[in-house]
Amino acid sequence: MQQLIEGYRAFRQERWPAERQRYLDLATNGQKPQTLVITCSDSRSDPATIFNASPGSMFVIRNVAAIVPPYETDETHHGTSAAIAFAVLSLEVRNILVMGHAQCGGVSAALDNSIADGVPFLRAWVDLLDPAVQKLPHGTHDRHTLLEQEAVRLSLAQLMTFPFVAERVNAGRLELNGARFGIADGKLELLNRASGEFAVL
Fold first, then answer.
1. Which residues pair with 37 in a beta bridge?
2. Short-list 194, 154, 174, CA closest to 69
3. Dihedral over Cα of 151, 85, 63, 55: its sign
């Protein structure tokens, strides 16, 4: 906790004076981010840092492996889906970016069943990546990186199962994009939706 307190004090001393008016505007007028970023909970892959984002510029959903679950309408709890619905229907974001990253632990768990042993909820969650795992070529030595990329493609496809997302995409009111961030080199790979391939920005 002490580290958090020290970080807050640094924020108040160094960043708050420069951002004070922006926070006041956000408090008065509410948030109106143009982009929803769906990314991993991994502490090394912070979208606000990666994109040098100002307060109020991005609505962010973080979960294990940046997974978008399929659209479901049962009465159980759907935290990621609820946040997607809020971003699209209430905030009316214009862009959704699904961003995976290198050395993703959730992807490792999808490839190695033993990783989720003893961790409640994790197995069922990473099992959502099974369709992406099934697409991996046999015999490849780089299954982890390929699955990190394929997981982004899967989540983008899952987004289109949400009727309100598909409706806005088809009407040209919403854009879907994919990316993968390199922890070690800081490089960002963007998904070319036409070719289906990732290329370094």
1. 60, 97
2. 154
3. positive
The candidate with the shortest Cα–Cα distance to 104, out of 131, 129, 77, 79, is 129
Q: What is the pLDDT of residues 24-43, one digit of tens each?
A: 999 999 999 999 999 999 99
132 vs 148: CA distance, rounded Å: 9
- Domains and their CATH numbers in the chain: 1-30 (no CATH), 31-200 (3.40.1050.10)
Q: Nearest CA to 26 among 75, 84, 77, 91?
A: 91
Cite the beta strand spans of 113-174 per DSSP E.
none
pTM of the model as a whole:
0.94
Residue 99 burial by CB count (10 A; 0-12/13-18/19+): exposed, middle or buried?
buried
Using CA atoms, how far residue 170 sits from 56, 70, 167, 175, 198, in Å, is 27, 19, 5, 9, 23
pLDDT tens digits, one per residue of 82-122: 999 999 999 999 999 999 999 999 999 999 999 999 999 99
Residue 141: pLDDT band with limits 50, 70, 90:
confident
